[in-house]
Amino acid sequence: ILCDLLVEAGGFSAELLLEAALQAPGPIVLDILAVGRHLPPPEFGRLLSFALEHPSEKVRTQAVVDLRGFGRGPADQLVVRRMLDSDLGVRVAAIHVAEARRTKEAIPVLERIIARDDFGARDPRELRVLVNAYANLARDRAVPALARLLSPSLFAGRKMLEAQVAAAQAFGLIGGEAAEEALKKGMRSLNK
Questions:
Q1: CA–CA separation, 86 vs 36, rounded Å?
Q2: CA–CA distance from 18 to each of 3, 23, 50, 137 (Å)?
């Protein structure tokens, strides 16, 4: 209610909101972001830059989601950086936003994450989101990396099973002959 009153009254600026956010706990910063959404994008962007570095993972997650409506360029870089956040929820939100924005700058980061030896140890939800975003953004370029996930040499027990399932499903998102052949070959390798 207070946020709605502030918006109706109008008398707020990015500087005022940022000053209030600097000293506020996470839940209050979320309210400040709600008010800030009514600012012009460049002014709201300054508030989001602060929120993206906030100690609260809920604030960082909301700030990433709020970047979805911004134009290309600096917002893409901010989204990509949050894909490496220490918090699972922030990472998943950033990956979803990067995919929705069609952020090509995310492709090399996704490739590095997928190539890591500990990739299969990630949370199953994050595995699916990572692999799907990679498949949707990189398309045919993703086929070799996803095929490696199906390789039996990478099979490390149940931990890799989720990554392999995600990779197999991602081939369906990519479509095309190369993806179909890689899936067939991977499935033959797994069944040996």
A1: 25
A2: 15, 9, 8, 34
Residue 27 has pLDDT above 70, yes or no: yes
Q: What is the mean pLDDT of residues 28-40?
A: 93
Which tokens is 172 given?
A: 């369906």
Write out the two tokens for 152.
Answer: 């039996």
Q: Using CA of residue 129, residue 135, residue 138, residue 142, what is the dihedral sign? A: positive
Cβ(106)–Cβ(98) under 8 Å?
yes
Tokens of 20: 């209030």
At 157, list the tokens: 């027990």
Q: Which two tokens stand for residue 184?
A: 């067939």
Q: Angle at which helices 158-174 and 176-190 pack, to 10 degrees?
A: 160
For 102, the 3-state DSSP assignment is coil
- Residues shown for the chain: 192
**Residue-wise pLDDT tens digits, 49-61:** 999 999 999 999 9
User: Which amino acid is residue 140, in one-letter code?
Assistant: D
pLDDT one-digit tens code per residue, 110-138: 999 999 988 988 999 999 999 999 999 99
Place of tokens 């700030």: 63
Q: Is the pLDDT score of 3 beyond 70?
A: no
CB 48 within 8 Å of CB 66: yes
| pTM beyond cutoff 0.70 | yes
